[in-house]
Design goal:
Rab-GAP-TBC_dom, globular, 7-stranded antiparallel β-sheet, 23 strands, metal-binding, alpha+beta
Amino acid sequence: MWLKPDEILLKNAFKLWVTEDDNEYFVLQRRRGYGDGGGGLTGLLVGTLDTVLDSTSKVAPYRILHHTPDSQVYWSIACGVTKEEIVQHWEWLQQNIMRTLSVFDSSEDITSFVQGKIRGLIAEEGKTSLVLEEDPEKFREALLRFEKWFELPPMEKLVTYYSCSYWRGKVPCQGWLYLSTNFLCFYSYLLGAEVKLIISWDEVWRLEKTSNVILTESIHVLAHGEDHYFSMLMHLNETFVIMEQLADYSVKRLFDKESFQREPALSDPLQITKRGLEAHAKSEQFRTFFRLPKEENLLEVHESFLWVPFSHFNTLGKICLSENYLCFASQDGSQCHVIIPMREVINVEKSDASSRSLTVCMRGKRAVRFSEVRGYQLLANTIRSRCGISASPQHSASSEAIRGECQSLINHFEDNPEDVTLMVGQKDSSKAVSTEALMTVFHPQDVENLEPKMLKEKMKEQSWNIHFSEYGRGTSMFFTRKTRDLIVRGVPEALRGELWMLFSGAVNDMATHPGYYSDLVEQSLGTSTLATDEIERDLHRSLPEHPAFQSDTGISALRRVLTAYAYRNPKIGYCQAMNILTSVLLLYAKEEEAFWLLVAVCERMLPDYFNRRIIGALVDQAVFEDLIRENLPQLVEHMTDLSFFSSVSLSWFLTLFISVLPIESAVNVVDCFFYDGIKAILQLGLTVLDYNLGALISCQDDAEAVTILNKFFDSVTNKDSPLPSTVQQASAGNNDRASHPKVDISELIREAYEKYGNIRTEEVESSRKRNKLHVIQTLEDTTKQNVIRVVTQEVQFSASHLDSIYNLFKRQHFLCCYWTMKSPALLHHDPSLAYLEQYQLGFQQFSTLFSLLEPWAFCTSKSTLSLWVFRLIDENQDGLVNFKEFCFALDTLYSGSFTNKLKFLFKLHLPPAFDLPEEGVIRKSPERGRGKVDLQAYLKQWQNEILRKEETIKDLPRINQSQFIQFSKTLYNIFHGDPEEESLYRAVAHVTSLLLRMEEVGRRLQEPTSPSGNMTAATACGPAPSLMS
């Protein structure tokens, strides 16, 4: 490998190198302790030194140095793993460089020429693979060590590497940690003791930062039931973030079969880089905090002050810029942030250079002012270009008008800072509305109603209107502590839909996709899938007590929204609990708004909640358990097994408490959820348990605890709700309310924020990532046990053998997904299939695994046999084999009777296994996921399998002569070369020859003699001698 020329003052410092060859300008050296005469004490010391110092010599013990006769300075220009490799470089220098050097007059010119030539060679080599790395030279050397030490497939992409200590008990091993796309690797070599560790990311159960008495902070990795600890003096947080990213990337790619089409940095596992992972992590955190669409990426970050007009002070924070949004978040504890869509910006004005400030002017006479912005001119130009605003002094008449309006706005703002209405503006409410929220239709508010509840509702509206006048209204509203305080007190019915849209970010989705929902409704109209069948079944179970869903108006709207979403996102389709959530959204939001709110919940705020395995809900339940241990120790002491709370709280998370609370109380919880996300649900869950702590501690069993919680939820009321009794839900436990004091939902939420409001969103997200690995691996383990239990009933393998085969099958499935996004198993993955069919193998992966497990050790035509076996057991002919089909084949070959084994071999020489061309493995690739599932066909197939009689030899069709000859050859190849089967091999050859002669005699007796007939007979007998040879 050519190296970037590096100066070496002493060519043989400490006698660590031995010269193998030299000439006037170059020296070829070998590292002492390697190669011929290596080993011994010198080899141990040198090897240890090389590992600790991260020397390339550890894996490349040969090098070439460049020097000139009149200089004592040497330059390292090449290294090699083997002597053959370094000799190739040496010969190349002799043939291509030595002759040229004689024409130079000075040593400086010679050295410059050699260095330039070597750098050119390195640049040519690194054009493709190393162009994205931060330090290509050092990375090339690390890659060389990585490939040499771990011997992984050449496609494996090294992402980054760190110096660290690996702890074996209380003894640290100093070495190097290598993080690649699919593996975590560690290597250490100290005084002859070599430590090598390779862990696949898909085998990691837990990944977390920990500390103990010995280590102040370390990274804990749990895999294969073993604990691994890594510590380092520097870059521990950076290392942990990269490890988290790679583990999460592996989980999404291998378990969830995501293709990352919208994320170029992650779409190709062969091009993953440290820089790309770090950018992805920052963008993910940015989108989560500001509730932005998945398409947005964090492009620039600038520290600045934001003038907060309603408080009359500058708050310190960061400006975050993406493709379509300008966002600001404070960092001084004021909890102020603002989101400005680029589509709203009409101009950007720069003030004097001393304050380094700029003012962003928006539609509706709104403006925000940033000051002390480093690089404010560049930022202003960037915003202008993204908004399509010309920075040139040449303006059209309309541009001049806008400029004049913005300048007058800025002047007014500077002269009258107390006038906050102009600064943050009012929402433009002139848009025409096509539909209404169901609550508006079925429960219109009476303006003249002077009942106490209605008066209180009007007071809430007035409070919010004052808030809008100070903080702004619409997409550019300032979010502050006062906003949260108003949310906790309760949102007025008339403003609920608008605020849900704003807090969730759905308002931006809808604004950037005009007409999208109506198009989806038209496209999905009349489609018939498993999702639409389930939707129809659940339509009348969605808030059946509410008048809106006792009419066709509400039911039709619910059907359209759910069907449109199932059509938009077939990966989720439809999941139970989506109907309940969507019903509540339709009560307070227009139909299109309800659709975009559902998109925000399912795809951003509650990721992975609504799918077959509800992984997201299980992860948040694990987070909930961690919070219970931290905040309710008394309850933990009484109930050591917290899985009870996981089972009872599942509906809390899936339906946001809507299924357990009356609708008039549940909507207050939904208000908090749209503002604070899952943190609000976790806080309320802790408060519910804390409120009932005494009763739960005195419980004797789980059933009693469930009864206590149900009675508590029945007692929760909303004393301020203006809804009439016909709309409010009647509690199931109405008769028992007298025995339990009533609890107002506003007081409960206020208590949740007071007691548990210190839970930070960042901590929740970190806990989510930590628990996700464990949840997924637990589900995978449960799936494996279910698969083995089903397959055990139909094969003779023991459970332990099936466990080993399953692990090999799963590993082979993952191997086909490691280095490509286009393997057959990925392209045709269908999450709606049963767990038996989730892991499948294409022919190449099947052939590799089958060749390791099949019993024909001496067979010379394994590849052909593997192809025939693959075709035979691929019953649906989709070019993929599942675990059950694979086990059936192995069970027949290992545990089947002699007759069944013979039948299996016989079938290999019948269609569809035998008569197809070699390239015809994948015969059809059915479109999965959207098609209607024929349940009747499944039931009929199941019935046929139950009634199917065991196939006998008599049921097998006859084979023709060519198939018989191939069958004989197969038997010959299977037994030939096995000393224990030599007699059987000779018997097969003898019997085959006799049968072919008998067939020839029979044909001659039945057919008249003719030239063609004799030719056919001769052709038929032709292979016989070769079988016996």
